[in-house]
Amino acid sequence: MRRAKTTTVEGPAAAERARSLAYGIADGVLAVPQVPDTPVPAHATDRDGRPLLLVPSAAPAVAALAAEPDDMPATLRISDVAPVTFADRIRGRAWLHGWLSRVPDAELRAAALRLSHVHPRPELLDLKGGEWTILALEVAQVEIDDAWGSAALEPEEYAAAAPDPFVAVEAGVLTHLDSAHRDELAALLPDSVPSGPVRPLKLDRYGMWVRCTPPSPDPPASFDVRVAFAEPVSDLHGLRCVYRRLFARATQG
Length: 253
Prior knowledge:
Helices cover 28% and strands 32% of the residues. By secondary structure, it is α+β, with helices and mostly antiparallel strands.
């Protein structure tokens, strides 16, 4: 994960970034003491940011929880992988530490609907056959490490934040920019930045990161630059307006 050239510009707070990672788009792994790690094919959060984890019913973590259902410590490890292909695609990581439990039967439908909203894969949400189990993690502490830096968060700070408004559509926006607007992205950078390919790395309501690869040395050493918006945006209409203004200003010199 490459550090930013500068972190003095306005951007999302650590709690907001953690809630965005926990939202469910990024890959997750469940770690429980003394049992093998469990890949989590789908996870989401409820309104308070409590992670809901879809795991195979045969996973050792599920058996360990059945044997010791009270106060089972666990960690959800999240790796934020860029949707655009790079040599190094890890944009950040988060660790959500807390206490694991099974979702009660009375709450299963709501949990499954929440998961299906983030992960529209019906085969993962068919709980009738017993192949899958939904677990919940009561968050006790959160750690995050990304381009902005590292931070540790208390559960109240994490729960009070909200995920970035573009977390669910970011992948589509970035892949579109990468396929159709690379020249415009390059034009957004100041003259002091060495020329070379510029590709979109990460988007949030305050701006975006782009990855620059100068033509030399060999092999090229890429670095990340922040492109800040004039003001935060909250929806796709606002985002389109920002991009139109940025691209028009860049092409006019």
